[in-house]
Amino acid sequence: MKESHQHCMKAALKEFKKPGKRSFSIPAGDSFTALIDGQPFTATDVRGFHSFGVRIVVGLIDEGGERRYITVAADDYLAAGEYDVTLEGEVTIGYVVENAGGNNEYSAEAGRITMSSAENIEFSGQFNATLVESSPYQEITEACFKVGQTVELS
Q1: Residue 69 neighbours by CB under 8 Å, 6+ apart
Q2: What is the pTM for the complete model shown?
Q3: What is the Cα–Cα distance from 51 to 54, expressed in whole angstroms?
Q4: Which domain holds residue 49?
Q5: Residue range 16-32: average pLDDT?
Q6: Residue 23 lies inside a defined structural domain of this protein
């Protein structure tokens, strides 16, 4: 994954771990859904951030002993439109599984995204992606995400 995207993703995931940082439900209209190898992923927490010249949205499912995240990172100069998803491109996608055994990160090596809105006010779109061959997961499909606002990471 592109270095600036990796830095932004790590900073965004840190935000999810801060106690009391967010004690309310997902704002109306915000969402992140997908299929991971055909299994539904419906985020219970969705947040958007920008930093390091990158805009990112993170969807989280917290199942107690395991937290799963899907991240979409895009260079912040990109406007709404269609883009390729690659490991080192302008748009990268990741799937992170965090449990007692640690963090496992799986990047998308190929895919296509349609960003409906790519602004700090709203970041939304749809994508399909194939994860790296070494991943135990093959693909993320029918993914749709939307956050009404992205927040600056410090």
Answers
A1: 13, 16, 58, 59, 60, 61, 94, 95, 96, 98
A2: 0.89
A3: 5
A4: 3-18+28-152
A5: 69
A6: no
